[in-house]
Design a protein that fits this description.
It is a single chain. The chain has six domains: about 55 residues; about 240 residues, Alpha/Beta hydrolase fold, catalytic domain (Rossmann fold, 3-Layer(aba) Sandwich), CATH 3.40.50.1820; about 80 residues, no CATH class; about 180 residues, Galactose-binding domain-like (Jelly Rolls, Sandwich); about 220 residues, P-loop containing nucleotide triphosphate hydrolases (Rossmann fold, 3-Layer(aba) Sandwich); about 80 residues, Lrp/AsnC effector binding domain/regulation of amino acid metabolism (RAM) domain (Alpha-Beta Plaits, 2-Layer Sandwich), CATH 3.30.70. Helix content is about 30%, strand content about 25%. It is built from 24 helices and 41 strands. The chain has an eight-stranded mixed β-sheet with strand order 1-2-4-3-7-8-9-10, sandwiched between helices. Strands 14, 16, 19, 20, 21 and 24 form a six-stranded antiparallel β-sheet that branches. It has a six-stranded mixed β-sheet with strand order 33-34-35-30-36-37, sandwiched between helices. Helix 1 runs antiparallel to helix 14, helix 3 packs across helix 4 and helix 17 packs antiparallel against helix 18. The longest helix is centred in the first third of the chain and has 33 residues. The chain is globular and about 110 Å long. Pfam families: ABC_tran, Peptidase_S15, PepX_C. It comes from Cryptosporangium phraense. Belongs to the ABC transporter superfamily. InterPro entries: AAA+_ATPase (IPR003593), AB_hydrolase_fold (IPR029058), ABC_transporter-like_ATP-bd (IPR003439), ABC_transporter-like_CS (IPR017871), Galactose-bd-like_sf (IPR008979), P-loop_NTPase (IPR027417), Xaa-Pro-like_dom (IPR000383), Xaa-Pro_dipept_C (IPR013736).
Length: about 950
């Protein structure tokens, strides 16, 4: 019985294909992990103690412990750009060695060093003071200027970027402000205004009335121990004598200086004194503010001309998102290119591998364009991350990345009505103990695992709750609320925080952040609250999604473990204006699904294997159903009938779309953003299933895995290549992955179309956007498929290349082949396409030949012989049936009001005018705008 035998054999073959596909998936996943950040070139490293001139006059020598990472490609004959890589507070050059090696592997000379007061470097910590740490870095730029393997912008001016996080991030900002030789910077999780960072006050009163961030300050000074450095520096810190071998005479040690060293480590004496003063009083004096201002980028942002990529952590109670916001606004105000990205991590929590990869990719793109001068210009989209469920692999929250067009985020406000007794009494405990717990400095990840909601002490907080949300609210920015308070002392320190409460009553505190507030001049009792206007409190900036069915909870507490509050016990009365909570709602675009875990991936792969045999028969049957050919359209490259696509949330992307693409045609698919073009193309390629209607390619119905898809060549939603391979190797591997014979690729013809020349042998990561675009089009044309589908094929091409592309597409649509082009360049579509399909709101509103769609029109453009213009204008203006005749630089524009085109030609010829051309002046763009309106 040959029929069933054949069927069984086809099922066996299908099972083999399924198993092969599973193996390929595993291999590709491993490959993706391997190439996430390729190691790149081999790197050689040299370390040395170098002496540089620093200090206020740059005339004080200091020894710095340095390392230089040099890629194998760098030489005197081939100099490359350089990167200064600065470490965070408490670290050293060893802290950033792995990152330095990666950057060097990408073709940069990387210089790392231990900042003064850290590691083996000399000096004391001056907290990024312009006279000391900044001048140290300026001296290191001088050393880069003397290297023949570093690219130079001019004499004494190396091509250099500065990258660093936290302490190193502030240094990059300050260095760019004080030294214009810096060409690009990437500051991460750093500060804008150090007084405000350590003495925040959320009503805008300023650091003089701020609430001291004592836990973080104590951690800073506690981490700067006396170890390391030069013996002579340690002797100076102790006020002691040392011999030539560095041995300190114990009898000469100054007890007061020894105590200071124990308390403040290798901090400079003036900073130590100011810290001890702040730790004792909990207040910022004018001297403290002036000293911290010296180390603040806020005052020099208008000097920064280096393109700046600001990366800030969303889990950071030390330097919150508002610090990056202030830096971004100040730098962008001068016209300097700025890009902002938030990520799930910060001083309170280390990022996941996925988030680290995202930061690395953003950094490399920024350096490749603004430092090396290659690669596409990074867009200005702002991105941030929201947390999801807890990963079973590493117990971190899974994440989803969102983008917004530009920075700062723009959106409408969402008002939340709060309910609760008003006013409410809350007690400030004696000496601020016990205190509420919102975060543990440097261990926020641990805090979130123990209690994502923090700990509020009963009797010390007021609680206000909003109604259940009827829809999800995406927030990117700083919420605000208005509060009132009364205090028997006339003063109060309060901590305001916003919780996300799920349907089961579980509360989370996004970022573990609170808004500290110091209020003065308060009424003494609750009955006097009505006489005072509410105070607006700016809550911590956040990027967060409040899910549908959740609610918000506003808590006002009298204490927080991370801050210094009043020691005197008191009972305050607090109230919240009912409708005053304002959430800065935005409409972001998700760019990635929630992060999966390897456990779920492996489970999914095993499930595929188990179900493979079962699904084989179903696949065979489905192929039989879809293999039936519609005789009426068997010779037609593409037939679309009543196409419809609705998503699960009710969004109707495509409503009713019908058109055909005949042999020899170049058809343009036009429509405004959101019209459904990309959705239609994805259905055409079998990437998603239609909700209704059908798509036929040469009479075969399209669905995922349909064999007829092999007759389609496509370039949709941007090119994707392996960056570490050459263009030629990418094309070969792509064709090899299709399983078809190498000789059927027609590779030489595709390369001729690409026009890359010798660049086809170079690695794709060195390509410009235009080169990537041409390579992608060549890839789509491999094998000369019968139907070519291109999405925005001229992006990144210059005018000559665009003109060449017109000829390529016209030549391609021969011998029964056809082309479907989606583009927003209407002038290009009008010149290259024979037919157009116009889509608006998911519905086809027009289809047909370009000439018919454009129509005759009442306006014509007349070209006349040079020198005949005036005679022609005189004749036309006197002609009946012509309302307007005027030159426009390309000819004479004639508006017909009853006359025909032939009448115009006869009139001009009769007047002795040489007529060279007469064409309709109405453009496709005019028709398009009329149709979509």
């Amino acid at each position: 019985m040959p029929g069933p035998a054949r069927t069984g054999w086809r099922a066996v073959v299908t099972v083999r294909r399924v198993l092969t596909t599973v193996a390929v998936i595993v291999a590709v996943a491993a490959l993706i992990v391997w190439i996430r950040w390729p190691d790149g070139e081999s790197v050689r490293t040299t370390s040395a103690m170098v002496t540089v001139q620093s200090g206020p006059g740059r005339n004080q020598p200091i020894a710095l412990d340095t390392s230089v990472f040099v890629p194998s490609s760098a030489s005197a004959d081939h100099p490359v750009p350089a990167v200064l890589l600065a470490h965070g507070f408490g670290g050293s050059k060893d802290s950033v060695a792995a990152q330095a090696r990666k950057l060097a592997g990408q073709g940069y000379v990387v210089l790392t060093w231990s900042a003064r007061g850290f590691g083996r470097s000399g000096g004391t910590i001056s907290l990024d003071d312009p006279d000391y740490e900044v001048n140290d870095a300026r001296a290191l730029i001088d050393r880069l200027a003397d290297r023949d393997d570093v690219e130079q912008d001019g004499s004494g001016d190396p091509r250099v970027a500065v990258v660093g996080g936290s302490y190193g991030g502030a240094l990059s900002l300050l260095l760019a402000g004080y030294d214009q030789r810096v060409d690009a910077i990437v500051p991460q999780i750093t500060w804008n205004d150090l007084p405000n960072a350590f003495f925040p006050e959320s009503t805008g009163a300023g650091p003089a009335d701020g609430v001291f961030k004592r836990s973080w300050a104590g951690l800073f000074f506690g981490s700067a121990g006396a170890g390391g450095g030069n013996p002579s520096d340690l002797a100076a810190l102790l006020g002691a004598r040392s011999d030539s071998n560095g041995e300190i005479d114990p009898a000469s040690i100054d007890p007061a200086k020894a105590e200071e060293l124990v308390q403040c480590g290798r901090f400079s004496p003036d900073l130590c004194r100011l810290y001890l003063q702040a730790a004792t009083t909990g207040r910022a004096t004018p001297e403290i503010i002036r000293r911290l201002d010296r180390a603040s980028p806020a005052g020099i942002l208008n000097r920064i001309k280096a393109p700046t990529l600001l990366i800030q952590g969303q889990a950071d109670t030390l330097f919150p998102l508002s610090e990056a916001d202030a830096n971004a606004r100040g730098i962008a105000a001068t016209g300097t290119p700025v890009k902002v990205a938030w990520y799930a991590g910060g001083h309170d929590s280390s990022p996941s591998t996925r988030e680290s990869d995202r930061i690395d990719a953003l950094t490399l793109d920024w350096l490749h364009h603004y430092l090396r001068g290659g690669g596409p210009k990074p867009n200005t989209d702002f991105s941030y991350t929201t947390a999801g469920a807890i990963s079973v692999r590493d117990t971190r929250p899974t994440t989803r990345i969102y983008t917004l067009n530009g920075y700062p985020p723009q959106g409408d406000g969402y008002r939340v009505r709060l309910y609760g007794p008003s006013p409410q009494p809350i007690a400030n405990p004696p000496a601020g103990t016990p205190a509420a717990l919102s975060s543990l400095p440097g261990t926020g990840a641990l805090t979130s695992r123990l209690s994502s909601a923090g700990i509020d002490v009963p009797g010390q907080f007021a609680n206000y709750t909003g109604v259940e949300l009827s829809r999800s609210i995406d927030v990117a920015g700083a919420p605000t609320v208005q509060i009132q308070a009364a205090s028997p002392t006339g003063e109060a320190v309060l901590f305001v925080k916003l919780y996300d409460v799920d349907a089961d009553g579980r509360a989370t505190l996004p970022g573990g952040a609170v808004a500290p507030v110091r209020l003065t001049g308060l009424p003494r009792s609750a009955d006097q609250l009505g006489s005072r206007l509410p105070v607006t409190v700016t809550l911590p900036t956040l990027g967060h999604r409040f899910e549908s069915g959740h609610s918000v909870r506003l808590v006002i507490s009298t204490s927080d473990q991370a801050y210094a509050g009043p020691v005197t016990p008191a009972v305050y009365q607090v109230a919240v204006a009912a409708n005053s909570l304002h959430l800065p709602e935005v409409t972001p675009v998700p760019v990635a699904d929630a992060t999966g875990t390897w456990l779920w991936v492996l489970a999914g792969l095993l499930l595929l294997v188990v179900l493979g045999v079962t699904s084989a028969v179903l696949i065979v049957r489905a192929r039989r159903r879809t293999s039936a050919v519609d005789p009426a359209t068997a010779e037609v490259p593409l037939t679309v009938r009543g196409l419809r696509k609705a998503y699960g949330d009710g969004y109707l992307a495509v409503r009713d779309l019908s058109f055909t693409v005949e042999p020899g045609q170049v058809v343009g698919l036009l429509g405004p953003n959101g019209a459904g073009k990309t959705t239609a193309l994805r259905m055409l390629l079998g990437l998603i299933r239609p909700s209704g209607g059908e798509i036929l390619v040469f009479g075969h119905r399209i669905g995922p895995g349909a064999p007829v898809l092999s007759r389609i060549g496509a370039f949709v939603e941007g090119p994707g290549f392996l960056p570490h391979l050459s263009g030629l190797e990418n094309l070969r591997r792509y064709w090899q992955a299709t399983g078809r014979p190498a000789e059927s690729a027609r590779l030489d013809e595709a390369l001729e179309i690409a026009g890359l020349g010798a660049a086809v042998e170079r690695k794709v990561k060195t390509y410009s956007q235009g080169m990537r675009q041409r390579l992608a089009i060549a890839q789509a044309m491999l094998g000369l498929p019968d139907l070519l589908v291109l999405d925005e094929p001229t992006n990144g091409l210059d005018p000559p290349q665009i003109a060449e592309m017109r000829e390529v597409l016209s030549r391609y649509a021969t011998d029964g082949r056809a082309v479907l082009v989606s583009s927003h360049l209407l002038a290009e579509v009008e010149q290259v396409c024979t037919h157009v399909v116009v889509v608006s709101k998911g519905t086809g509103v027009a289809a047909g030949p370009v000439a018919e769609i454009v129509g005759e029109g009442r306006s014509v453009l007349v070209g006349v012989r040079s020198g005949d213009e005036e005679v022609a204008l005189t004749a036309l203006r006197a002609m009946p049936g012509v309302s307007v005749a005027q030159p426009n630089g390309h000819g004479l524009v004639v508006e017909l009001a009853g006359a025909e085109r032939g009448d115009v030609v006869r009139e001009l010829v009769g007047a002795g005018v040489g007529v060279e051309r007469l064409v309709a002046r109405r453009r496709l763009e005019d028709v398009f705008l009329e149709l979509v309106k």
